[in-house]
């Protein structure tokens, strides 16, 4: 059921939903959550809301709490957003109402602000001269400083994204001018797509922490978090949006301006887990990199075993690489229920107690009596891996050797990935041997930071590796971490 909210002469804001929260079926699921996926399109004559829907569908892995699309046909912005997966939020009839030639879309996992409808994106801000809709992937670290510029009582902004949207729109100035002035003062990670009634914009922070790429359609242009989203809508990859670059897209084509010098520090964790395997970063396929990491992992941490199995799906490429390098046969020992994940039905206690089995089930005939190498992408709190080791032993595994295709995650991320606090990260306080004992594994080996970095072929000084080594490329005042979250202060 739809509920119509504020209606302005040139702006209609469509509200739907009741702010429901999603539930993870598996209480042990503590995998890292990405901040968001963003998508934008400028394409006269195309069904831009459907292109955006499919773009978001391709980016669903980057955020599963809420989804939204904003469109404009040149005179007004219409937004539709709700809690849920992209396919739960949109259907044919909703997309049919979202007509225009410009659209932006967003799928969200919350990093600042709580997981409620009000914080779903795109966000919207309007003045007498028009509206501005914005979608953000990343996390700002000077939000309170930015929010202090807003007049008290002029906004109910509770997230970094809403503050940014309000600041960009507030004076009714040309958007490009406002963005070129504001963005150099914004600190943190941001890959943005935004639009007014006539123009699509995209911008990336000077460090380029989060990805953002430009693609070409026969009838226009596309921007997206990952190249896989370009492929799915039939766009050809043109280039990455440069760190510190702002682009504007309208009937005059694509215009680019630089608002800050580029100091590239791309997120290393994109290669480990966040990006889709069929995405390309800096000209190199993510799948190729992950297989190479698995090969290096086998060299760094060899073991006598009968079978290499992945924790599906994220451990699969590295397990293939490990098997290739070690000569140990590769097999499927765990079956994933791909359709289990976030649900909007509150699980019963009985269902919750099933834990990891809701997502993974062992193949007993494959596992029984074997010495296994189990390859996973990362360990955050350790709950999932502990449950997997236990499950494999119950299924008859003789030995369980855990191999991880990232170094220990020992530091939190302030640039848009919701791992945990340092105290919650198992590698924040325990040694590798202590973690092995905690998991109940026969052995445990992590790829080295050098090995992972070399596998990406990106020089280490162009990467953010802070969650592995605590060296934050955009300085963080760790004593005041709490201040980076804005709690409905304006
Ligand atoms: S801290 Fe880790 S997850 Fe966060 S941006 Fe840096 S490499 Fe990526």
From TrEMBL:
Residues that, per the record, bind Mg(2+): 314, 376-377
Its recorded reaction(s) are: 5-phospho-beta-D-ribosylamine + L-glutamate + diphosphate = 5-phospho-alpha-D-ribose 1-diphosphate + L-glutamine + H2O
| One term of GO molecular function | magnesium ion binding
Keyword terms: 4Fe-4S, Glutamine amidotransferase, Glycosyltransferase, Iron, Iron-sulfur, Magnesium, Metal-binding, Purine biosynthesis, Transferase
Q: Where is the Glutamine amidotransferase type-2 domain?
A: 36-252
Q: Which residues form the active site?
A: 36
Required co-factors? Mg(2+); [4Fe-4S] cluster
- Give the residues the record marks as binding [4Fe-4S] cluster: 267, 413, 464, 467
Reading the lineage from the top rank, the first entry is Bacteria
Which InterPro entries does the record cross-reference, listed alphabetically?
GATase_2_dom, Ntn_hydrolases_N, PRTase-like, PRTase_dom, PurF, PurF_N
Tell me which Gene Ontology terms the entry assigns under biological process. 'de novo' IMP biosynthetic process; purine nucleobase biosynthetic process
Q: In which pathway does it act?
A: Purine metabolism; IMP biosynthesis via de novo pathway; N(1)-(5-phospho-D-ribosyl)glycinamide from 5-phospho-alpha-D-ribose 1-diphosphate: step 1/2
Enzyme Commission numbers on file: 2.4.2.14
Give the cofactor note. Answer: Binds 1 Mg(2+) ion per subunit. Binds 1 [4Fe-4S] cluster per subunit.
Keyword Nucleotide-binding, does the record have it? no
HAMAP family for the chain: PurF
The record's function comment reads:
Catalyzes the formation of phosphoribosylamine from phosphoribosylpyrophosphate (PRPP) and glutamine.
Name the family: In the C-terminal section; belongs to the purine/pyrimidine phosphoribosyltransferase family.
Annotated protein name in UniProt: Amidophosphoribosyltransferase
Source organism of this protein record: Sinosporangium album
